[in-house]
Amino acid sequence: CDEFGEVLVKLENPLLHSLQLFDIRCIVEGGLAECYPGTITIYPKQTVDIVLTIKPRQPGILKLVGIKLQLCGVPSHFKVASSATISVSKSMPLLVLKSDIPATLSLYEGEVTELCCRIANNSNFPIEHLDILDNCSRTGSVFQYSDIPLPLLPGAFADVK
After folding, report:
1. Can you tell me the distance from the alpha carbon of 160 to that of 148, in angstroms, rounded to the nearest whole number?
2. Residue 18 near residue 44, CB atoms below 8 Å
3. Is the pLDDT of residue 6 over 90?
């Protein structure tokens, strides 16, 4: 939840004159969601794809049942041919990892090098727990790394060496 999603809707104008559609939005059931409006002009005998944006506000099942729009100032509602069900999970953290690790790195046995990675929290909430796992060695971990100060607040970053 609280992440933007997109719905692709195909609209067809079978008429001989252009149609200007305003306030095109998704109609959803079963959950709380913000549906952002779109506007488009469809020329005669044209079929167009329009992308509508939805932002679910709570976890659960969200069902897309139709679209609503305004044509010539008159609101209209249309049901979709087959409704789509979307399972909305709770907000997940978004971590961005930047590293100075080269594409290839060769070390002789016993040789040690220091590498740095920056972990940035691009989420809207703090990261309370973080596990770093490595599976590069058959005999156990070959990495030692500095502790990451937690919680990692929104917009904050930590350098791991």
Report:
1. 7
2. yes
3. yes
10 Å CB burial of residue 69 (0-12, 13-18, 19+) is buried
Tokens linked to 59: 């976890």
CA pair distance 43, 45, nearest whole angstrom:
6
pLDDT band at 24 (very low <50, low <70, confident <90, very high): very high
Q: Is the bond leading into 151 cis (omega within 30 degrees of zero)?
A: yes
Go through the chain and tell me how many residues it has: 161
Query: What is d(CA 104, CA 124) in angstroms, rounded to the nearest whole number?
Result: 34
Amino acid 75: pLDDT: 95
Q: What is the pTM of this model?
A: 0.64
The full 3-state SS of 141-152, as one line of letters, equals CCCCCCCCCCCE
Which of 26, 47, 48 has the alpha carbon at shortest distance from 35? 26
What's the CA gap between 74 and 79, in Å, rounded?
A: 17
Lowest mean pLDDT among 59-73, 79-93, 141-155: 141-155
29-48 pLDDT, tens digit each? 998 999 999 999 999 999 99
